[in-house]
Specification:
Elements: H1 19-26, H2 30-52, H3 55-72, H4 82-96, H5 122-134, H6 137-148, H7 153-160, H8 164-182
Helix pairs in contact: 1-2, 2-3, 2-4, 2-6, 3-4, 4-7, 6-7, 6-8, 7-8
Length: 188
């Protein structure tokens, strides 16, 4: 996947890819599969970056994810759940790589030089990165899927294999913990 230094190109709309494309790709239509990749690769890559903490490794894993998806697409029973299913494949690929436990600090905020409206104080960014890194893994993962990747609670629940209510609870607890860690009275 060719991309600039920040993330792969591709549509990041929150809509699911067209179910007809999913079905056509499962039947061997390469053009339909390419549309599926373009529709989901940005979210998959960002999710992998959050899991493994390494942009280059995330790119390699994203390629592996889409190879796995291509091979197993015929087993997908619910074409409307394609994006959630792909994120499950991505999660499994990250864990298979053995990198999730040995994560480096997360790259969750845009680089200050990434473009208009994306500048920020590097000290604040470092504090946020540190706070996110200190969250429990299940809370961080739910927050990343909902707050940063843009999945609905239902979709995140499907990707994580937990009920929607569990995702809501985890996101709430993650946000509350982050606010507590980032309050000025907590060490600043």
């Amino acid at each position: 996947m060719d991309h600039d230094e920040t993330e792969p190109s591709g549509s990041d709309s929150l809509d699911q890819p067209d179910a007809a494309d999913v079905e056509a790709a499962a039947a061997g239509d390469v053009a339909a599969f390419e549309r599926l990749v373009l529709a989901t690769q940005g979210r998959v890559w960002r999710y992998l970056v959050h899991l493994v903490g390494d942009r280059a490794l995330a790119e390699d894993l994203a390629q592996e994810v889409f190879i796995r998806v291509y091979r197993k697409l015929a087993t997908l029973r619910n074409p409307e759940g394609f994006t959630s299913w792909v994120l499950v494949v991505a999660r499994n690929a990250a864990y298979d790589a053995g990198r999730a436990k040995a994560r480096r600090p997360l790259e969750l905020l845009p680089d200050p030089d990434a473009g208009p409206g994306r500048s920020g104080d590097p000290h604040v960014a470092a504090e946020v990165h540190d706070a996110l890194d200190r969250l429990e893994a299940d809370l961080r993962e739910a927050l990343v899927l909902v707050g940063m990747i843009g999945l609905s609670y239902r979709e995140a629940g499907e990707a994580l294999g937990v009920p929607e209510g569990t995702v809501k609870s985890r996101v709430f607890r993650a946000r509350k913990a982050l606010l507590g860690m980032l309050e000025p009275s907590n060490g600043r």
